[in-house]
Amino acid sequence: MNKIVEDMANRLLKRKPEGLGPLESRVLQSTLERTTITRDTNKAVAFHETYGDRVADSIARIGGSWSFILAFLAFLVVWTAGNAWLLTRDAFDPYPFIFLNLVLSMLAAIQAPVIMMSQNRQTERDRIDAAHDYEVNLKAEIEIMALHEKLDELRHSEIIGMRDEILRMAEQIRRIDEKLSARPATE
């Protein structure tokens, strides 16, 4: 590891360089190189998505929407009304709607795992986003601490300069005072 990165780890993060993870090391290195650390995590996730992943996400997006819920509710009302009242004698699926129960069970058996797969992928995306947010926040924090150090150095050098100027002026005042004291008083 670079000596400067080790120094930054000790000074800014108050940690030994060997105690840093790869993420912290990458952040410190990017700080040292003055490069950005941000990236589009959506592109990285989209690059690794398969066709099945996209289909599962689409099914979850549709299956979890109010339009699907309301449309399916309308379907259930039509099915129930059609088979209970309109087709009382020749009902396709008479009460207690056994075929409807079979359809609903099959739909739930297929839809639930697909939605779970989509949620698991979303959880993984959230983990990637959280790790990226940590990197960006850590880099911002390090940059702010470095700026504070620079400001402190500037302030310190300014104070030293003012002190030297005060000493120089005090010396000039002392010399002027000596000259005035050495001059005979004229009355």
Written description of the protein model:
The chain is mostly helical. It has two domains: 1-35, no CATH class; 36-182, no CATH class. The chain has six helices and no strands. The protein has helices at 3-12, 22-33, 41-48, 51-63, 66-86, 98-182. The longest helix has 85 residues, at 98-182. The radius of gyration is 37 Å and the shape is rod-shaped.
Write a compact overview of the structure shown.
The chain has 187 residues and is mainly α. The chain has six helices and no strands. It has two domains: 1-35, no CATH class; 36-182, no CATH class.
Question: What structural keywords apply?
Answer:
80% helix; 187 residues; transmembrane helix; 2 domains; Cyclic nucleotide-binding protein; mainly alpha; 6 helices; transmembrane
Distance between the termini: 79 Å
Q: What are the low-pLDDT stretches, counting only 5+ consecutive residues below 50?
A: none
The count of β-strands is 0
Roughly how much helix do the residues carry, as a percent range? over 70%
Count of individual helical segments? 6
* Quaternary state of the chains: single chain
The tally of structural domains comes to 2
Largest sheet: none
Q: Could you state the order of secondary-structure elements as H and E? A: HHHHHH
Radius of gyration in whole Å, from Cα? Answer: 37 Å
- Overall geometric form: rod-shaped
Which structural class matches the secondary elements?
mainly alpha
Average pLDDT number: 86
Strand content is: under 5%
Transmembrane segments: 66-86, 98-117
Protein name: Cyclic nucleotide-binding protein
Pfam families: DUF1003
InterPro entries: DUF1003
